[in-house]
Amino acid sequence: MSIDATTPSGKDKPAGSILNDPKIRGFIYQAVTLLLLVLFIYWVTANTIENLKRANIASGYGFLNGRAGFDVGQSLIAYSSDSTYGRALVVGFLNTILVAVAGIITSTIIGFLVGIGRLSKNWLIAKLSMVYVEVFRNIPPLLVIFFWYSGVLAVLPQPRESLALPFDMYVNNRGLAFPRPVFDSGSQYILLALVIAVIGSVLFSRYANKKQMETGQRMPVLWTVLGLVIGLPLLAYFAAGMPISFDVPVAGKFNLTGGSVVGPEFLSLFLALSFYTASFIAEIVRAGIRGVSHGQSEAAHALGIRPGLTTRLVVVPQAMRIIIPPLTSQYLNLTKNSSLAIAIGYSDLVSTGGTILNQTGQAIEVVTIWIVVYLTLSLSTSLLMNWFNAKMALVER
Amino acid sequence: MAKRILTALIGAAVMGIGAQAASATTLSDVKAKGFLQCGVNTGLTGFASPDASGNWSGFDVDYCKAIAAAIFGDPTKVKYTPTSAKDRFPALQSGEVDVLARNTTWTINRDTALGFNFRPVNYYDGQGFMVRKSLNVKSALELSGAAVCVQTGTTTELNLADYFKANNLQYNPVVFEKLEEVNAAYDAGRCDVYTTDQSGLYSLRLTLAAPDDHMILPEIISKEPLGPAVRQGDDQWFDIVSWVHYALVGAEDFGITSANVEEMKKSTNPDIQRFLGVEADTKIGTDLGLENDWAVKIIKAVGNYGEVFDRNIGAGSPLKIERGLNALWSKGGIQYAPPVR
Question: What is the ipTM of this complex?
Answer without folding.
Answer: 0.70
